[in-house]
């Protein structure tokens, strides 16, 4: 009984880890060449931007909210970056801060609407999603290819790691993850996010700065989205209004598969990273299989998501039953 | 001797108005260091509003608050805490998804080199709780502990801010006797350390046991401030309800002698795994049957079976002699059974609807969604029951969330009474409501039973059970242990023995 109680918080996370290892083992035994460091590192290289978005999304979901605008913010960022670099011929050192500011400001606006007007995050960020997507088409309906020494450098640099390599994007993503883990566990703000997701009413009565925290959460998510947008632009070397279409849903899926409760209050940033890796490994397996259509990725993600939501529900119900039998 | 000290807190001329309701008018309150001061009054008297003004949840329209002589203006709960005014609420207002340590420290964590110092916080949390004679694993989630311990943690949180004023808002309503004694030990200790404590409770015994001074409020106005030892109970009660107490005329003799009508409900071997062991019961028409037992004895679970809110595994139910299945509440309602849940907030009221809409709900349910009851008729019905049950405010268009607990309970009763049930199941209808409203509800039960309604009355207040019921069924550990015919010779002691079981 004692061990069960401990597990309650960590069971989803453990399950996610176990699943990842199982899938990795499955791939390694089935396909030759799967068990190589580079295949593993490619998971990070190909999904660096998704990791960054998922980190921001983790804070949002931990607080009991949701942010649907992140995919569009990535597209908008890529468009802003591409047009400023290619059309306005601005230096990347000016472009990058502007891009980050765009996402943060969208987040700030959404956060303020959610807090001051007491609106549903779902509907506010849905509006933000349409707005950002529309704005990117306003800049241009065509793809803008980027041809700039700095962007080329960011796209093609390889940081050797033994026999294999990683990209600069991976380093950025990992820095974001480390910072987020620190913020989540060792900062007042991070703990307020958990409290807010656990019981907003109590958080108010305990004198926590609920409004500030809420707004800050969406600023962080917006910032992460625009940072991810930059990383995505390094990866694609273009700006396009259709970039990252539906990516917000991948991010939410990664966070939930990573063990964060959709109702808020419980979960870990590290879990979301593993969630992203699981999405990545599904794709890798399908590529290695060779004969399957890439849409199988979606089917696998859908099935996994369902499984995890039911799994979380069962844990919550079990812990409730246990509690009522104790008291 | 306390008169010579300077008061720690003075509230003067506090007035607070809500749309349509004057919650407080010109109320004064003072609190001395090293005393326990009880704030008494019926539901809706203004106790909670006064506390919320003090803690910055509401702002007062008029009046001043002085802490140790200097005027303060509290804008929000955080400011109140920073001033040393902390509150422990009736329902534990902490975050159960966080650990005990965190619940004590969140908002003012100990920082070291820009990061939260978990190690230091853990040992400090253990110290704080040790002051309250509590040794638990503080790294576990709050939700893994009982309500009593959660309450202690809440007090621990309050103390940790070098509290000057501690407000305990109905801290004992969900504690058992041992836990209450433990809490009182802690309160006395804190009092001796010079803390000023405001204590709010509906339990008179506890008020007299713990408090030094009593302030009585009624209808948002100050009735007076008294030393506890100079104020006899009966006077306190009459000051609270504003009329001489006619001692809720006990009609025990009448109740006991009453002729039994024919059998309405027969329950045979009704059981549900894990909640109720096989249960037999006969309920006659016009009979009030009390269901006594401790929390978790299966009282509520039985009521839910009878209402079809849970499905029974085995056994049978006969109503008016014919066998029936009660698998969903709708079936039960159509057989004339009504059920007022003990959890008013979650299973009773719809907070954002008006009194009228809340009253009409069950009737509309029976009539069917497409059989709209004309609004004029709705208002008539609402007005009739507002008068009959003395619901306050009298305005049927008032939102129910603005009502006091007792009045919400009366609206719940009205909701079911208009369906004209044959069997009314009341689960703790008097919990958390004031003496006046309790008396009214008991009177109503008795008069309903005289009109032939059968009532199953679940209550933890044995006195109420003895006062109203013809027959008392005692449950223990999910099982019926005895059935007692009420009469003069039956005492609370007798029932408690049965509830506790074994040798007492």
Automatic annotation (TrEMBL), chain A:
Membrane topology: Multi-pass membrane protein
Keywords assigned: Cell membrane, Membrane, Transmembrane, Transmembrane helix
Presence of keyword Transmembrane: yes
Pfam family, one: BPD_transp_2
Transmembrane segments annotated in the record for this chain: 6-27, 39-62, 68-86, 93-116, 122-145, 165-186, 215-237, 249-282, 294-316
InterPro entries attached to this UniProt entry: ABC_transp_permease
The keyword tRNA processing is annotated on this UniProt entry: no
GO cellular component assignments: plasma membrane
Any GO molecular function: transmembrane transporter activity
Chief place of localization: membrane
Organism domain of life: Bacteria
Protein name listed in UniProt: Sugar ABC transporter permease YjfF
Gene field: yjfF
């Amino acid at each position: 009984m004692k061990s069960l109680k401990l597990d309650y918080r960590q069971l989803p996370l453990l399950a996610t880890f176990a699943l990842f290892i199982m899938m990795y083992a499955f791939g390694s035994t089935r396909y030759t060449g799967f068990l190589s460091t580079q295949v593993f590192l490619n998971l990070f290289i190909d999904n660096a931007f998704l990791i960054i978005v998922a980190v921001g999304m983790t804070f949002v979901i931990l607080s009991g909210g949701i942010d649907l605008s992140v995919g569009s913010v990535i597209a908008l960022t890529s468009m802003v970056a591409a047009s400023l670099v290619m059309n306005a011929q601005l230096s990347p050192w000016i472009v990058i801060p502007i891009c980050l500011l765009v996402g943060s400001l969208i987040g700030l606006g959404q956060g303020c609407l959610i807090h001051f007007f007491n609106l549903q995050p779902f509907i506010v960020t849905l509006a933000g999603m349409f707005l950002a997507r529309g704005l990117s088409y306003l800049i241009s309906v065509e793809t803008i290819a980027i041809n700039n020494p700095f962007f080329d450098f960011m796209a093609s640099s390889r940081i050797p790691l033994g026999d294999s390599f990683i990209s600069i994007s991976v380093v950025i993503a990992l820095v974001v993850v480390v910072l987020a883990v620190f913020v989540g566990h060792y900062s007042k703000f991070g703990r307020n996010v958990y409290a807010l997701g656990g019981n907003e009413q109590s958080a108010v009565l305990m004198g926590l700065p609920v409004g500030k925290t809420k707004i800050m959460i969406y600023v962080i998510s917006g910032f992460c989205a625009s940072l991810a947008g930059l990383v995505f632009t390094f990866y694609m070397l273009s700006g396009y209004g259709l970039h990252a279409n539906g990516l917000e849903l991948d991010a939410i899926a990664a966070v939930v598969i990573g063990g964060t409760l959709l109702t808020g209050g419980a979960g870990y940033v590290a879990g979301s990273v593993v969630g992203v890796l699981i999405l990545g490994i599904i794709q890798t397996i399908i590529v290695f299989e060779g004969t399957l259509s890439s849409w199988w990725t979606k089917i696998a993600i859908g099935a996994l998501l369902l499984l995890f939501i039911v799994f979380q529900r069962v844990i919550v119900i079990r812990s409730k039953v246990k509690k009522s039998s104790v008291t | 001797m306390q008169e010579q000290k300077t008061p720690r807190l003075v509230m003067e001329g506090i007035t607070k108005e809500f749309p349509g309701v004057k919650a407080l008018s010109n109320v004064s309150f003072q609190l001395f260091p090293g005393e326990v001061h009880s704030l008494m009054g019926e539901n809706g008297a203004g106790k909670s509003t006064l506390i919320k003004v003090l803690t910055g949840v509401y702002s007062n329209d008029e009046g001043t608050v002085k802490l140790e002589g200097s005027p303060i203006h509290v804008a929000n709960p955080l400011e109140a805490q920073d001033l040393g005014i902390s509150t422990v609420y009736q329902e534990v207002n902490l975050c159960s998804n966080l650990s005990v340590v965190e619940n004590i420290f969140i908002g003012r964590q100990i920082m070291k080199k820009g990061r939260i110092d978990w190690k230091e916080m853990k040992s400090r949390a253990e110290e704080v709780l040790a002051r309250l004679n509590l040794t638990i694993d503080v790294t576990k989630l709050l939700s893994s502990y009982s309500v009593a311990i959660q309450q202690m943690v809440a007090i621990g949180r309050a103390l940790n801010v070098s509290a000057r004023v501690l407000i305990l808002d109905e801290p004992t309503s969900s504690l058992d006797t041992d836990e209450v004694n433990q809490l009182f030990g802690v309160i006395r200790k804190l009092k001796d350390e010079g803390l000023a404590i405001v204590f709010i409770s509906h339990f008179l015994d506890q008020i007299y046991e713990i408090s030094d001074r009593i302030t009585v409020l009624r209808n948002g106005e100050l009735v007076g401030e008294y030393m506890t030892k100079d104020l006899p109970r009966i006077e306190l009660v009459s000051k609270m309800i504003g009329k001489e107490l006619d001692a809720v005329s006990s009609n025990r003799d009448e109740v006991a002698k009453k002729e039994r009508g024919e059998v309405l409900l027969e329950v045979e071997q009704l059981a549900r795994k894990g909640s109720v062991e096989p249960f037999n019961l006969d309920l006659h028409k016009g009979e009030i049957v009390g269901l006594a037992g401790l929390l978790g004895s299966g009282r509520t679970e039985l009521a839910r079976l009878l209402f079809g809110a849970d499905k029974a595994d085995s056994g049978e139910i006969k109503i008016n002699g014919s066998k029936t299945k009660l698998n969903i509440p709708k079936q039960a309602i159509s057989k004339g059974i009504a059920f007022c849940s003990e959890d008013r907030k979650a299973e009773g009221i719809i907070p954002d609807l008006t009194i009228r809409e809340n009253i009409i709900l069950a009737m509309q349910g029976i009539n069917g969604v497409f059989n709209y009851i004309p609004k004029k008729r709705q208002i008539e019905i609402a007005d009739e029951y507002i008068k009959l049950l003395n619901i306050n405010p009298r305005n049927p268009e008032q939102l129910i969330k603005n009502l006091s607990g007792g009045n919400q309970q009366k609206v719940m009763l009205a909701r079911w009474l208009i369906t004209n049930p044959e069997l009314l199941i009341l689960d703790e209808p008097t919990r958390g409501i004031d003496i006046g409203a309790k008396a009214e509800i008991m009177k109503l039960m008795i008069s309903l039973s005289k009109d032939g309604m059968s009532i199953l009355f679940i209550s933890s207040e044995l006195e109420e059970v003895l006062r109203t019921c013809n027959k008392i069924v005692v449950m223990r550990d999910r099982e019926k242990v005895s059935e007692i015919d009420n009469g003069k010779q039956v005492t609370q002691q007798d029932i408690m023995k049965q509830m506790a079981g074994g040798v007492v």
